[in-house]
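User: Hi! I'm working on a homework problem where we have to compare a predicted structure to a textbook description. Could you give me the structure for the chain below?
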Amino acid sequence: MSESPVFLNKLEVERLLSYDELIPRLESVMGRFSKRDSSEITQPVRSVVPIQQHNGFLGVMPAYLAAEGILCTKMVTFYQRAEGSSLPSTQATVLLFHPEHGHVTAIMDGEAITAKRTAAVSAISAKLFKPALSEVLCILGSGQQARSHYDVFTKLFKFKEVRVWSRRKEMAQQFVNYLQDPVTVCSSVKEAVMGADVIVTATGASQPILFGEWVKPGAHIAAVGACRPDWRELDDVLMREAVVYVDSREGATTESGDIILSGAEVFAELGEVINGSFPAQREKTTEWGYKMLSQPNLCWRSGTVNIEEPSSTASSADFTIVLSAMVVASLS
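Assistant: Happy to help. Predicted structure tokens:
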């Protein structure tokens, strides 16, 4: 009879998952994914079920790493909430299975996993594409993705100035109060992004909020919002002048409204750059947007764009469970 599954809540996942361990692991798995060897990694494009009467979606993202015996799936709901709503826009759970016997071995909070995984891949793209001299970081958005991106970008890179914008200024101020660090709250997107070297877009926008005419030549953009084929964060000028990098061509061309609606072409996957089969065109680009779901990472031709007290129940072995499941299930 199979053992009961391990349960890891958000605080336990956050404690067990460190960026120092996660980033190199993700680089390795992304490189292997881009080789398209099904004997190593099986990861179909995410299945999405519309929840039309509630303006939401359910996404299911399975994956299997045969050599490592990792079989898991992430299930995520995401909604376009009314302004001022206290309900979360996304909620997620990750299940890890025994690949031979088929039973569930672990049930994990997926919000913390998603937040750290998304921010970690954005950081990988920034390592590859951001300008060598990057002094100003701009974050558009004030939710969990904005916080995780602030954490990893300020951990890995040194900035002289950090700016934040949110559709509701009081939410941007709450974001700054939470950080308790010197961050400038901006009253408009244009004010926030003008002259910025690295831009993170982590919003719930369905129409473009960031326009190419505002973006500094050479700036790096990590765009992680706009997760549906008809949602956008970036305008046509920005998209069409970019060299586009994604972590999954199939996912990006199926789910990224920024790519689909602009007609932008995908230049390469991040894994292909990691493997050395495609160049990181840092000198041309504004690295565009890593997407939370379809994960585009792209490069602007004049720059670069890339398209929350733990309990005592989590053991050191649980770290391996969390790390394995996160790398696989959150790749989609």
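For your comparison, note the following. Residues 285-305, 308-317, 328-332 have pLDDT under 50 and may be disordered. Residues 293 and 332 are 6 Å apart (CA to CA). Good luck with the assignment!
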